[in-house]
Amino acid sequence: MLDETVSFKKARLAGKKLKLALIIYGDRGNRVYVSTKESITIGTPLLADGSWIADGSYIADGGGDPITDFQPLVFDWGVMSEELRGNNFGNVIERTLRNYNIKLLNRQQYWSKLIDRERILNRDAELVGNYLDLPESNQIAFLRMKVVGITLTNKYCILELEER
Amino acid sequence: MRELDQPIKLPDAKDVGYTGAISGAMMQIVYGDFLTEAGTIPCVHFATNGGLYYWLVSGKPMKSIGNIYVEGIMEESATDFTIYEDNNLEGLGNIAYLTTPTDYGYKKISVGGEGRMDDSSSLNLIEVASEVFGQVLVDVAEATIATDFESSSWALTGQRCILQGYKFAGIIRDNNIMVGQLILQMVSEWFGDAWIDKSGKLVTIVDIGTIVEQEIKGTIFQSDLVETSIILTQRLDDVVNNLLMKYKYDFTNQRYLGNKDGNEDPTYKDINSINAYGNVPQRTLMFRWVKDDAHISKIKDVIFTIYAGVPRPYTKLGFRLKDLRHNNIYAGPFVRFSYNKFYKDGVPMENEVIRIKNISKDFNRMIIDITAEDMEVISNV
Is A68 inside any structural domain? Predict the structure, then answer.
């Protein structure tokens, strides 16, 4: 079960569409990547203008780490699969986790330049989900990973991620 | 390349013509220091003559022969043995051997000693390879080296071995290995490579983390590339920052006596790389032809220069060439490469040196697929 906040649950039950983001925790701050199909912005502060109810679902100054980069570059979120293998009695003897690939656009050689000047390999990364109008403190991390491989072409960058 | 395709022909004692020789006793050759360094030389019972048993140490003269061991136990007085370090036995050439009146049957006899060495130390790779080669075709050794080895790479390899202080130590006793294979085995262990070039000559390199201009054999321009085929990869699996290096091979007991473990000796870990990438699983590497501590330390430095990923991760490239115009490119050498959509040191890749690792030429589709590794520095040596 997802460890969701009240607001998150409300939004989920209201049938809103969950937005995904990939966060790479870099040397120079966090880099956030969202789908190329989205047109979302982040960092909207909660204003004490009376539109928020102090029911515990919002946190003042909502947490949040510094973001150095925010780009709509995720072309394909990919598929994560894992498998439990058991013996005949149903005991789990092995958990097989396949690496997860995420495909991003190399628009204007964004990744060519980035991997040249900053180390991305072995960086921690998270796949998080949140609803558009909720602050960051509501977001849920679906996967906690590290970058174990980078494949770059003129159009795409495929990040290979391994669960931490 | 017919000579390189031949197996090493260590002479059989019977074929050499020693009186009372045992058929199948190979005239092994010992290189390097087994006296002060760990490990012993297993002797070969090669003849029985006049009530004496002849045990071969080396088919070439030894600089010295030290302690004698029977079944691994040192003979304190060793009066049972007579030692010949450099003797022209029956006028059939100078060899190193022991004689004893005692029939040791199938017992294991081994000795300490200094094999083929120059005045002060072991021979370097080039000198050994020349000898190995000479062993195959004794009559034409020098001439064959000149025609079968690519001379500039051969000279550079020798120069680098001297620069790095690489010393060859070991026993050549295997008759089933091809000459070219043995040389490849030697250089690859010393972080090098050997391949046949387009004119059929053996090219060798010993990688010390730098390249010289003369090693660069061609240029691939951006206009030669099929743009959709170009791939750059960096993987955590390629990072090496913790080593377990086994060396000082004991030919008598078939095990490694030297051990450099990054978990015990911090100089065999690359701290900068560990800070950047974490503790990646330790790599175990074995070195059959290395006995010298300084030598193993130099190899470690080269490995960390190339694979520790600092300052830049080890990078591979894959690409396709549009036509067969570059048909003269082959696996092994360094070429220059340009592609302005990948960056290096803050600027688009232009005339960067890469090394071709894998090449496949498709004559139906008239294309060439290549995988290569991005190289670092150009230097004079």
Answer: no
pLDDT digits (tens, 9 = 90+) for A94-143: 666 677 899 999 999 999 999 998 999 999 999 998 888 787 778 888 88
Say if CB A160 and CB A101 are below 8 A apart: yes
Q: Assign B118 a pLDDT band (cuts: 50, 70, 90).
A: low
The ipTM is: 0.76
Token pair 């591979």 in the structure block, residue: B316
3-state secondary structure of B52: strand
CB-based contact A142:A115 (threshold 8 Å): no
Residue A9, domain extent: 1-44+96-164
| Displacement of CA B139 from its chain's centroid (Å) | 25
Q: Which residues of B touch A112 (CB under 8 A)?
A: 232, 341-343
What is the per-residue burial (b if ≥16 Cβ within 10 Å, else e) of B188-199? ebbbbbbbbbee
Pairing mode, strands A67-76 and A29-35: parallel
Hey, what amino acid is at B144? T
A85 located within any domain: no
Asked if the model's pLDDT at residue A12 lies above 60, the reply is yes
- pLDDT tens, position by position, B131-145: 665 554 333 344 455
Question: What is the pLDDT of chain A when averaged over all its residues?
Answer: 81
Tell me which DSSP letter residue B89 carries: G
Task: Note whether residue A82 is domain-resident.
Answer: no
pLDDT at B319 over 90: yes
Q: Which of B124, B298, B314 is nearest to B232 (CA)?
A: B314
Using CA atoms, how far apart are residues B160 and B168, in angstroms rounded to an integer?
13
Q: State the total domains in chain A.
A: 1
- The CA-to-CA distance between both ends of chain A, in Å, stands at 19
In A143-162, the residues whose Cβ lies within 8 Å of chain B are 146-155, 160
Domain boundaries, chain B: 13-114, 125-206, 210-235+313-378, 240-307
Cβ separation A151–B233 shorter than 8 A:
yes
Contacts of A150 in chain B (CB under 8 A): 232-235
Q: Min CA distance, A164 vs chain B (Å)?
A: 13
What CATH number did the domain enclosing A119 receive?
Answer: 2.30.110
pLDDT of B56 strictly over 50: yes
B266: left (phi over 0), alpha (psi -120 to 50) or beta: alpha
The residue among B214, B215, B217, B221 whose CA lies nearest residue B337 is: B221
Question: How many beta carbons lie within 10 A of that of residue A107, not counting itself?
Answer: 15
User: What three-state secondary structure class fits B75?
Assistant: coil
Most confident of B76-80, B151-155, B345-349, B373-377: B345-349
Question: What pLDDT is recorded for position A161?
Answer: 93
